[in-house]
Target: Trk system potassium uptake protein TrkA
Amino acid sequence: MKIIIAGAYAIGTHLAKLLSRSNHDTVLIDESEARLADISGDYDLMTYLASPASFKTLKETGAHGADLFIAVTPDQHLNMTSCMMAHSMGAKKTVARIDDNDFMEEKNIEFFRGMGIDSLIYPENLAATEICNGLKMSWVRQRWDVHNSSLVMLGIKMRDTAEILNQPLKELSKPETPYYVVAIKRGEDTIIPRGDDVLKLNDMVFFMTKRDTISYVRKIVGKEHYIDVKNVMVMGGGMTAVRAMAKLPEYMNAKIIEMNEARCEELNELIDNKRVMVINGDGRDLSLLRDEGIGNTQAFVALTNNAETNILACLTAKRMGVRKTVAIVENMDYVKIAESLDIGTIVNKKALAASRIYQIMLDEDVSVSNVKFFTTANADVAEFTAQQGSKVTRKRVFELGLPEGTAIGGLVRNGVGKLVSGGTQIEAGDVVVMFCHNINMAKLEKFFKC
Model:
């Protein structure tokens, strides 16, 4: 594919990292020589120093033959303008990063499609969804629903209460076992496990299971004593907080603590939810947290623009007895630090936006869909549809010779989720869930195409 990215900022560079694992003809446009210099030596792509809102630039970078034009600068107007220009020159599909939630209304989306902008990416919306999904299950670090929840992937931190620690997986896995371990994140390493591997204390383990057996997984990992989230305390009243409150489950109540008094007044106007209270104060003030009932709070969400503040606030909340913490960490260098400090759920808007665009790119291929990139494990999880006569339909799973770094988590057949064993025979039309660590997706596509 011919892909043009406008904007060598965090989203653009993270997207370039994802694309570098595939053999795409990629061009990165930016007006800063320094930003381009930072990325050009690390990834397999061409850089172009110029403004993306220039017909000369778009012509010379090949917009007329582009399969995908992606504009992800911090300026939404520049992104939209350059997408419309690229579309007019012949780009097949365009994607623009925006900062205005009103643009996401269905009537406006259709309007922009008519103007040549096929997809809009609003990072705050993506982050809000991630936050609320994290709050729904206090004992889970990450959750991903596969094919309309026919299967569910859960990322869970192993504590000493887990009954499945230090036992070979081949002894835990029986034909009737209602889960499958697809990956283990241990320190800096991501492990695609085999039968002799064991789960250890503090591992982040990725389980594939069915929706009706989530409670079984909760039991074996020793998380039944975790209280479900009903009361949430949020530090920081930016747009991510506003969008998260709009998506907050009906059974939850929230308090937003915001330092700026004028912003508090704005929040009261923006948030139409009687279960949300806005408080003017400093979320780092321990006495304020106690006065506002942190002792009766099951989740603490730190959404300020400062990664260090969010990390420290979550650590403080944990020491004050809050079980579930969520932190926005925009500096990618701090993500690993936050993981090592056992913060909880870590949300990075830039990585979410890049992953969503990555999925849009892969949607052009009929064999792969619904891709999610797990930053913590440096891995993709994707749904592949097995075509009639493809390699995966001709042999049982253990005979397929799948590339190293991949694991089949399960499959969906006629709308019903099924876990997979070595003896499973995949059939044409099956939607197969693949966990892929640091691997080129193209290596897997050939298994599913005839």
Summary: The first strand starts at residue 2 and ends at 6. The two ends are 20 Å apart (CA to CA). The chain has four domains: 2-121, 144-221, 228-322, 356-448.
